[in-house]
Design a protein that fits this description.
Strand content: under 5%
Number of helices: 4
Distance between the termini: 46 Å
Order of helices and strands: HHHH
Number of domains: 1
Helix content: over 70%
Radius of gyration: 15 Å
Shape: flat
Oligomer: single chain
């Protein structure tokens, strides 16, 4: 039986969310990819996966802008900002 590296549940969830987002993006399902990416940013903002997810969200917003979907691009950026703000509020409440 092969040994498996011990991975924490939150780490496994973060990795899985990033894979789902990446897979959807590679399939051209940009709008669907936003959900796991933004979930990562909102729920695990300080993780390496969240940094990658935020970069991908910004890239998707740029693709949409390049296609002339300015309003949709702005909505994507707004959702990214709200995900970060929600995460920051959660950290502030945890500190209290």
């Amino acid at each position: 039986m092969a040994k498996r590296n011990p991975v924490s549940v939150p780490e496994a969830i973060r990795a899985s969310l990033l894979r789902v987002g990446t897979t959807l993006e590679e399939q051209g399902k940009l709008h669907q990819a936003l959900t796991p990416y933004l979930d990562l940013v909102g729920s695990h903002p300080d993780s390496e996966q969240a940094a990658v997810a935020a970069e991908r969200v910004l890239a998707i917003a740029e693709v949409l802008r390049g296609e002339g979907h300015y309003h949709v691009s702005m909505m994507v950026l707004d959702r990214l900002q709200k995900a970060y703000q929600a995460a920051e509020k959660g950290e502030e409440q945890d500190d209290e």
